[in-house]
Amino acid sequence: MVCSVLRLAYDRSFMIQLTRLNNQPLMVNSDLIKFVEKAPDTVLTLITGEKVIVLESADVVLHKIVAFRQSIVSGPRLEPADPAPANPSASSSAFRNPEGS
């Protein structure tokens, strides 16, 4: 089964991590961000109307959103679950016709 050979690399988050003014981490679904405002503080306005103030600058927030979107477009990174066999011809033998043709 493909799942036993390959596993997804879960080093990517499904949200962006920001920081509240009280230094508490905050995970935000970037799809819900309607506006990012530069004021004395960075204010995120969500599509629900809720406003969230974060420590990161507007430029950093936008960079995190773009990086997150790029990771979505590039798709999941697949890594082998087991190390590659030392003999490359051994791995291709499973795809050969057993009758030798």
Key terms for this structure?
101 residues; alpha+beta; PH-domain like; 3 helices; 7 strands; disordered N terminus
Structure description:
With 101 residues, this protein is an alpha+beta fold. The protein has helices at 2-5, 58-74, 88-92, and strands at residues 6-8, 16-19, 25-28, 33-38, 42-46, 51-54, 78-80. It has a single domain (2-77), classed as PH-domain like. It contains three helices and seven strands, in the order H-E-E-E-E-E-E-H-E-H. The strands form three sheets. Strands 4-5-6 form a three-stranded antiparallel β-sheet, covered by helices on one side. The model is unreliable at 1-12 (pLDDT under 50).
Please specify the SSE layout and strand pairing.
Blueprint: H1 2-5, E1 6-8, E2 16-19, E3 25-28, E4 33-38, E5 42-46, E6 51-54, H2 58-74, E7 78-80, H3 88-92
Short description:
The protein is 26% helix and 29% strand. By secondary structure, it is of the alpha+beta class. The longest helix has 17 residues, at 58-74.
